Structure formats: C-alpha cells, structure tokens
C-alpha cells in the first residue's frame, strides 16, 4: 500500500474529491469572511507592504480568499506572498487559477516548490531576515515530521503583532478517530497524520503562547463507500485512508475493518438517506 501524498497527481485528484463532497472549503471561506477580517485589520496597520506566507497552500483557493480579505482591510498596501508547496500538481493548479482571476495586481507571488522543512533550511542557509505579517498552515501540519518545531520556527518569523493561522481536524471529528484507530496500518511514512488541533493547543498552552480558536463544522458524504464496486465510493475510501487505490491494494481484512469503522453508528450521522462523516476542523489564530 502506497501513500497518496507523494504521488502528486493522485493526491490532487483525491483532495479535489474531498473538497467536492464536503463543506470543508465552504466553512473555511465563511470563517475567512466573518471572523478573520477584524483580525487581519489589526495586522501591519499603516504599512506600505505586507508579507503573507502560505505553507502547504495546495491549489491556493483558501490562500487567495485570505489574500482578498487582507487587501480589503489594507487597500493601499502592496502584498508580497510567499507560497511554499511541494506538489508541482498543486502549484500548477494554483498558478493556472490565478492567471484566470483578475484583480490581484496589488500582490506579487514567490513560488517555492518545496516542503516546509526545505524552505526553512533555505532561509537558514541564506541567513534570511525575512519577516511575515501572516503565515497560514491549513490542513498541512500532518505532513511534517515535527509539527511543533515547524510551528515554532515559522512563528519566529512573525513581525510584532503578526499571526499564524493553523487549521487541523478537531479531536472530536470522526476522521481524527479513523486516523488514530488505523495509525499503524495506514498512516505511515514518518508523517503525523494523527495530529489534531487539540495536540497543537496542548503545545501552545504548555508554552503559554496566546491563541484564539474557532470550530469549523464540516461533514463528508460517504454514502457511496457502502455500494460495492462504486467508483466514487472507492475513490473516497482512498482519500480517507490516503492510500492509492485502497480498495485494490489493501488486504481484504483491513478493508473490512475500515468499512466496519465507517459503518459504526458512533462514526456517522444519517441525514436524508445520506451517510455523513464528520471531518470538522478547528482554526487556531496564534500570536507572534
Ligand atoms: C490537505 S492539502 C491542503 C491544501 C490547502 N492548504 C487547502 O486547505 O486547500 C495539504 C497540502 O500540504 C502539502 N504538503 C505535504 N507535505 C508538505 C510539507 N512537508 N511541507 C509543506 N506542505 C506540504 C500537500 O502537497 C498539500 O498541498
């Protein structure tokens, strides 16, 4: 069984599938337009240039939404955007979408096709004194070897008054329970797929780092996972387990265990004959 994360084309398809079948992006966009504006208004007030960084930006939908709000709150400032994303497939999609969207002439983009760790090493090597007003890490800290060290390093790049925005699955979500239940069988490759917002909150509390937190409720429609041979259901199973062609490549016993987990009434809710799986996230807005 191979992890999807390193297969860029496969991972992009899988990610698009999740976004299309859940409210994950919608609820992030609501948060960006309701809660974030007041927070962003207080960042870098009066500056001519603002610096924003996206780590694991994916194909950029969420980063661009944040960028629009940052601009609305600081209409006279130029915004320099540093994009750090290891997947060429995600970066290509980001660049293509951007090229089709007018109205971003206040922003300049630097593209870094690399992991958060490689970008950290690059900054260290260059002896960079780069400082940021806003750094976001949305649904990406699962994929770094040491999430706390990554967070600490990037938090150290903030200007006074700057913010790091982290979004991760909540402890209470059924998806977090899935990752914890199958962590030894599915989520390997040295990544911390079992990470939740609760782990980061415990870390921040232990370091007495101030933050605000907001729950973002999201459900994923997994009805088709229970129709044998259904193509979309098979793709969703691969997305949930992050295994390439999970249905074909997983041992039958493991496939049965995963389906039994999903079918357990503790792990889903039924609404209008649809089976909905809780993939709620939590946003942490962390101080400098
Ligand atoms: C679940 S997607 C989230 C994408 C985007 N932030 C969003 O919410 O729409 C995770 C992203 O993290 C990226 N990623 C994986 N490993 C990474 C690493 N070590 N450093 C930075 N980004 C990474 C993946 O390529 C992918 O684009």
UniProtKB/TrEMBL annotation:
Task: List the InterPro entries hit by this protein, alphabetically.
Answer: HHMT-like, SAM-dependent_MTases_sf
UniProt keyword list:
Methyltransferase, S-adenosyl-L-methionine, Transferase
The UniProt entry's GO biological process terms, in alphabetical order, are: methylation
Q: Molecular function (GO) terms listed?
A: N-methyltransferase activity
Q: Which residues form a coiled coil?
A: none
Q: How does it assemble?
A: Monomer.
Please give the name of this protein: Histamine N-methyltransferase
In its UniProt entry, the species of origin is given as Silurus meridionalis (Southern catfish)
